[in-house]
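Suppose a colleague, Dr. K., hands you the sequence of a protein chain of 231 amino acids and asks what its three-dimensional shape might be. Before reaching for any lab equipment, you can write down a predicted structure in token form. Begin with the sequence itself:
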Amino acid sequence: MIHPKQIVIGTDTRQSNNMLAYSLASGAMSQGVDVLFAGVVSTPMIAYYSEVHQIIGVMITASHNPYYDNGIKIFDKGFKTVDELELKLENIIDNGPFDVLEHWGNLNITEAVEKLYIDFYDKLGLKPSNLSIVYDSAHGANYLIAKKLFDKYHPNALQINNQPDGLNINVGCGSTHMKMISEVVKSRNADIGFAFDGDADRCLVVNRKGELVDGDQMIYLFATHLKSKGE
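The predicted structure, expressed as tokens, is then:
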């Protein structure tokens, strides 16, 4: 049986997020589970916090889909849940048991998820650059954290699609609509462009010509960098 003592919940910017997040939190608290609510954060932020603190992380998001879709991503100590655990969760949802407890769990609004994520970047020893960068937040989950990080390390970066209204997530922008980032990079003579999806666990890149950079090339760059560090 699954008996977590604490879970952390985050959301993207969809209209239905708070309804789902607080419903899930209510259910968890009724079973004695303490809930940390992080608000609008990216999926990698929830996954990282879940791993560091060895707890269940829940992200309310439908990723790259339109606003009227929504869903739940669950992380077990930082890793996406395996089929076996998902089947157990589904069985509990369908059949219980749900105990009537004398003491419910607590709900706390937290900024610790963001702080931990920023601390991770600070430890990388990154140096500010004068690169001309454009990044597309898809009116989604990273529109807040991305700006904080890019402003810190790349003060010349331009953020686009960073005004979520609950309905415009992924609409004609982000990693599923690369034409916009390509055109903005070319029009500004920028050096590079990054486009994220709605929950920011996906990032596509265009070069200064507005051409899509193949994912294999990105993996090669990451791999050679890590190898040079002995990692």
